[in-house]
Amino acid sequence: MPCILLFKVISAAVAYDLNVAGVLQVSGMRIYTSGNMEAVNGTDVRLKCTFQSSSPINPNAIIISWSFRPLNLDQEESVFHYQQKPYPPLEGPFRKRVVWAGDVMGRDASIILQQVKFTYNGTYICQVKNPPDVHGMVGKIRLSVVTTASFSELLLLALAIGGGISAVVILLIIIVSCRRCKKRRQGEREGNEEAPRKERKDPTVW
Fold this sequence. Notes:
Residues 186-206 are annotated as: Disordered. The chain has a six-stranded mixed β-sheet with strand order 2-12-10-5-6-7, with no helix packed on it. By secondary structure, the chain is α+β, with helices and mostly antiparallel strands. The chain has helices spanning 2-21, 151-199; strands at 28-33, 35-40, 45-47, 49-52, 63-70, 77-82, 86-87, 98-100, 111-113, 122-129, 135-136, 139-146.
């Protein structure tokens, strides 16, 4: 017990000395991704990656890296790099297929894969470093490239299209109703103005 107590006292003293000396205490970087995703072959897909840092965001120091690990393989290859500006790959299977879609100050490190292929099946790894906050878990997205959209995606698309058509129909009904109402009121107003004219008599006629 005396040894444990002495160790705690020494640890507290060291931590106090570090704080007094101005040594920064580095906290872990937190990264959030969308998990498992599906994309239809030949379409574009957004790989969403957001992060939280205990340190203020420094756009001149922050580093964002995306890498790719194919299915059933442990080897990783670079997909994208950001340091003050985007650096898409100049060669390899992702050349001219990766677009920066993030916002550093908005804590967004997302990218877009254009015209995905079946060879893009695998795990995409998002890593963010905001010095001195450089430690923490990486974010992972498992992408499955499929021939056609899943039933849930088709259902959502159908609902979106149906909702849009319904909104247009309702808008047209409102416009037509307003025009009819306006014409009816105008007709009633003209009728009220003509009625007194017909009832007037010639003062010379007895």
